[in-house]
Automatic annotation (TrEMBL):
It is an enzyme of class 1 (oxidoreductase). This is tRNA-dihydrouridine(16/17) synthase [NAD(P)(+)]. It comes from Guillardia theta. Gene3D superfamilies: Aldolase class I (3.20.20.70). Residues 26-296 form the DUS-like FMN-binding domain. Residues 369-394 are annotated as: Disordered. Keywords: Flavoprotein, FMN, NAD, NADP, Oxidoreductase, tRNA processing.
Amino acid sequence: KIMAGEELVSPWHWWRSLGSPRYVSAPMVNNSELAFRLLVRRHGVQLTYTPMIPAKKFISMGAKDRLALIEPHEDDRPLIVQFCSDEPDELLEAGRLARDHCDAIDLNLGCPQSQAARDHYGAVLMEEPELVSRMVRRASQGLRVPVTCKIRVFDNLERTVAFAKMLQASGCSMLTVHGRTRGCTHHEGSCNWDYIREVKEAVDIPVIANGGMIRSLRDVRRCLEHTGADAVMSAIGLLLDPRLFGGQESGQSSDPPDPQPLPDPIELALEYLELAKTIPSTPGKSMREHVQALLRFELCPSYYHRGGKTDRHKDLWNLVCCNRVTTAHQCIQIVEVLAWREKHRLAPYEPPPTLKQIKYAPRIGASTAGPQVQAAASEASDSARRSLDSEDEGSWELAASIFDNLE
Ligand SMILES: Cc1cc2nc3c(=O)[nH]c(=O)nc-3n(C[C@H](O)[C@H](O)[C@H](O)COP(=O)(O)O)c2cc1C
């Protein structure tokens, strides 16, 4: 039983009070910041998570810095704040400081990275069920918002189910099961939907299924049918296509995975960046990473094998990977350069006219560029061609010259 105001409510009652969400955006360090959460909500997501926040760090911060990590927003509810911790009182205290800004507190028991194991948080804690039980019990008894957990599966089904039941008995109100084991780092490796189904059947709290190359609405439906879960959570699928949950069923199979280019990635990137522009707390790194993911086919078809020889617009790719690019405005300008090149069919590596010239030229979408701009473009591309003896150096040189023009 959990408390809501003065009432005792069951996990199911709470879940229904959230509108029984089915489409969930995952907690993602550097990537589930408010701007991205608002973007995916526009396209079908019904429940969002903050990136994982270390509870110890959160407690030690001032109130303003704490809010900057959660980025609460009236249009971003229901929202779950995720913490990592290995200490019951610490989790409780972090939960107290966050509870007024969210609908639940989540404990990360799924992070498989070596740093997590070293620092004793995430998936390594699944080896210590008694400690986890104490943490969940303490937090769920002491907080007026529900406590939820995100776990991985064990190799062994009985162990997985026993762990899930232990969480429920300790006061966990909802469980996300990532169907990969702790050994699968980097979010890859086979995902066991059968184990998720077994967990769902064994517990009586809402279960969210996660993992398994979900790249289309068809995959979402398959996952819900296979696991019987109450909802599906996506991380990489949403990074690659923020409209994953809002789109039409394509009928395509994503088995084997064959990610398709988005129909209008530039518009989508600009939609995200316009949102980010209105939210000053959006980290530059998050913006660059979203632009990299959304424009991967335009900027770098060898996205999955960085450094490949076939990269187009490598100068722009270099820019969106460069930590000197820090503002939404700069990112928008880079995307506009790309849009210009695509529109005017400039060959890869050919620089566009300066941003100022682009700004005063007919907008993207207009059919022809003015003669002055065309002249500037051809002049610029001649000089670029001369400097392109070495592909990499040339692309960096172009990146630098574009950077110098960013406002
Ligand atoms: C960039 C990135 C950051 C992530 N950060 C977190 C995190 O902060 N907390 C967490 O529980 N999982 C995190 N994950 C794991 C995802 O939430 C998810 O469990 C995993 O990617 C599998 O889902 P997917 O197959 O839909 O990508 C992260 C994944 C990615 C790709």
